[in-house]
């Protein structure tokens, strides 16, 4: 059962040698400020999401690193959570990026045993992610969502931040039907158009150059946007019919792309834009500034 956070010892697994104490981070929130319901409202990877409150703010999604799933590599996952919080904290005050209320580490009771966990807190979106929202809301404004995603990505790129794992399930939908980017666990930060990192994203959304050892790039985010747009507009996975990541990777390298004939109700200009996004050549793909401009007439 998960209830109210307890005080913590700063020498827990989230604290790595050579790092500043977690309490000194600008995003740190003392766990005694956090309360959660005792049942999760979502899960993914090595974490679970609980509905709760932070410093009296209700309607908060508390993403918690679950020791059960993170073990025996809890140190590695805790460090990844910390990097994600640091990157996320830099993304403030944009209507298409989910804000981070804060993050921290604490000892909570899981299955009768107190274990130290890491958490991140953000607004709870009852509409869920874009894929879930569009499945439940057939009349949802897809072009508005895609425009919002493009605006959010334009903002990230203006800060020289590469998302590196853009897809529909990593974009939430707020109460007004606006897209909100989330999941910054793969982000890469740098001062140029490219930056290297060890986490590569999701195969079906990766550009061909990544399979030849090239670094993650802004153009790679655009490729992922094209695949994301296709999945949202069609309701299909980008590479349905392929059974393995190896098969999907080979298809991308062989310049195979999703069949856009299923997008009969989508404006031709938008289809053309999507196809430009997944062009084989990174230099031929539009920027997110270009994408925002192209989609503006449809929102």
TrEMBL record:
InterPro entries: Kinase-like_dom_sf, Prot_kinase_dom, Protein_kinase_ATP_BS, Ser-Thr/Tyr_kinase_cat_dom, Ser/Thr_kinase_AS, Ser/Thr_Kinases-Pseudokinases. The keyword GTP-binding does not apply. The keyword Kinase applies. Keywords: ATP-binding, Kinase, Nucleotide-binding, Serine/threonine-protein kinase, Transferase. Transmembrane segments: none annotated. Residues 35-299 form the Protein kinase domain. Residues 1-22 are annotated as: Disordered. Gene3D superfamilies: Transferase(Phosphotransferase) domain 1 (1.10.510.10). Residues 1-11 have a biased composition (Basic and acidic residues). ATP binds at residue 63. It comes from the Eukaryota. One of its GO terms (molecular function) is ATP binding. Belongs to the protein kinase superfamily. This is Kinase-like protein. It comes from Gonapodya prolifera (strain JEL478). The lineage of its organism: Eukaryota, Fungi, Fungi incertae sedis, Chytridiomycota, Chytridiomycota incertae sedis.
